[in-house]
Task: inverse folding
């Protein structure tokens, strides 16, 4: 997992104009309330897609690695890549934003507690509401849903709600 994150960051850093790093702590919405931690890198492409810009939407790419606490065995390690649409406020200084996206995630185990995930490869749907706290510092509330989209016999999807700190430079 560490190698995956290192390779992803190295590959992305060669073409990045703006950078963002974030750290998130979260909790599963399941009965056991397992804790999660996530470290991520957000790539902001320098090119603007005119059609999206007309609607004040900007494309970003989120690359992350996470640990999910497993109360019934070893903790799970995950990695994800999520293309996202970022909608910043049009008010002065863009003090809030909404981000949403769907991407692919890899989970190193197919069981999390009593949940049968069905496969190591899953989809991650992410919705994030954030505010600018000070200059390049942001805080956000994030909702993520993981599922294999019924591509496997077992599909006990899961939800994670996280509090996220992000620094952009």
Result:
């Amino acid at each position: 997992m560490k190698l995956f994150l290192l390779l992803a960051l190295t590959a992305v850093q060669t073409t990045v104009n703006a950078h963002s790093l974030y750290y998130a702590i979260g909790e599963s919405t399941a009965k056991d309330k397992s804790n999660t931690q996530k470290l991520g890198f957000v790539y902001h492409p320098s090119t603007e897609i005119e059609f999206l810009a007309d609607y004040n939407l900007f494309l970003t790419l989120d690359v992350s690695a996470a640990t999910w606490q497993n109360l019934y065995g070893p903790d799970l390690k995950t990695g994800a890549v999520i293309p996202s649409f970022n909608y910043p406020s049009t008010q002065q200084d863009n003090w809030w934003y909404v981000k949403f996206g769907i991407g692919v995630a890899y989970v190193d185990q197919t069981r999390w507690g009593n949940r049968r995930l069905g496969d190591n490869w899953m989809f991650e749907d992410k919705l994030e509401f954030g505010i600018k706290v000070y200059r390049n510092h942001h805080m956000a509330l994030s909702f993520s849903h993981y599922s294999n989209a019924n591509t496997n016999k077992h599909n006990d999807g899961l939800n994670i709600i996280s509090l996220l700190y992000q620094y952009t430079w």
Q: What stands out?
A: The chain is about 10% helix and 55% strand. The CA atoms of residues 67 and 169 lie 26 Å apart. The chain has one domain: 19-168. The longest helix spans residues 2-13.
